[in-house]
Amino acid sequence: MSGCPAPRQGPAPLPSARGPVSAALLAALRQPPYDLPAGLGAELAAVADPLTDEDLQLTLFLCYELHYRGWRGVDEGWEWQPTLLALRARAERPVEAALRRLADPLPAVLPGGVPRALAELVAADDGPSLAAALQRRASLAQFREFVAHRSVYHLREADPHSWALPRLGGPAKAALVEIQMDEYGNGRLDRMHAELFRLTMARLGLDTAYGAHVDRAPAVTLATNNVISLFGLHRRLRGALLGHLAAFEMTSSLPNRRYGNGLRRLGLDEVATRFYDEHVQADAVHEQIAAHDLCGGLVAAEPALATDVLFGAAAALAVDRLFAAHLLDSWAAGTSSLRPAAAPVPAVAPTAVVAAPPLSAPAGLPAVA
Hints:
Pfam families: Haem_oxygenas_2
Largest sheet: none
Radius of gyration: 20 Å
Helix content: 55-70%
Number of strands: 0
Number of helices: 14
CATH topology of the largest domain: Heme Oxygenase, Chain A
Protein name: Iron-containing redox enzyme family protein
CATH superfamily of the largest domain: Heme oxygenase-like
CATH class of the largest domain: Mainly Alpha
Oligomer: single chain
Distance between the termini: 34 Å
């Protein structure tokens, strides 16, 4: 791995505003902490679709990232500034309400029936098959777009779900530690899933720096990340966070096999596919741990959280359907699924991790032909 350029690990630069609320927040974050105007963001309660509203989702993402690596040049005192937290709460309320509408109705279930109910939710999911499209017919440009979208999550993979660790005990905590240890490569940098994804990005000629593609990620992509942060940062939603993780793990193995096969179809090497190939095996094990030991263990200890677990799983599936539909609809229309860039996103030369044919990565992430 020594031939790989070191990625930027620190905070990402602030992105561009997408509306009046995110513009006001960005202006504030460039200054030392102070009290934001009372009622800033009140209009977010009335947006037509909270999960696809650019201003709302960027506002939430800006607030949430303060709890991860922060933003370059932003005073760390903003993380717990009371009026910023009030703005975040105003943005969270319509998002949570929208998720609950999408997840409704949830099946009534006794705690012992949660693993089976999770399996039934996953089996009933009828979202568009983005994985099949990427396996069989996606172009290199389209695959690069997909990876750019997913980098917003995968370059910090497992971190949002780790918020649950101090909030659990007993079998559920042990199960989450088992899953997360795999995600973090059992303490080996070269096996960390975030690191494996960075290598995939490098092979595709994409900027591998943390947060490099946030500016081009549309609201629906930010929403797939914001939902996990919403669940993770609120103790009252710990059941939803574990249900979200269970849905992730239970729907991962087959799609990752397809993603790997899609990259092989496009001529990519084993370094590019390693991230997906690793998940085929790991997630086949994780899905059983997540459903039975993690979620089953949680509701055995806290039966009142059974419905929350199913809500989190249903929300994960619903938001992923929106994400898949956005990409597939954009490509069917012959357009890019990413937001326009103020300047082209530079392609970087494929890394020389192992000998492989050079990739002719296009400059930037071009619109689909």
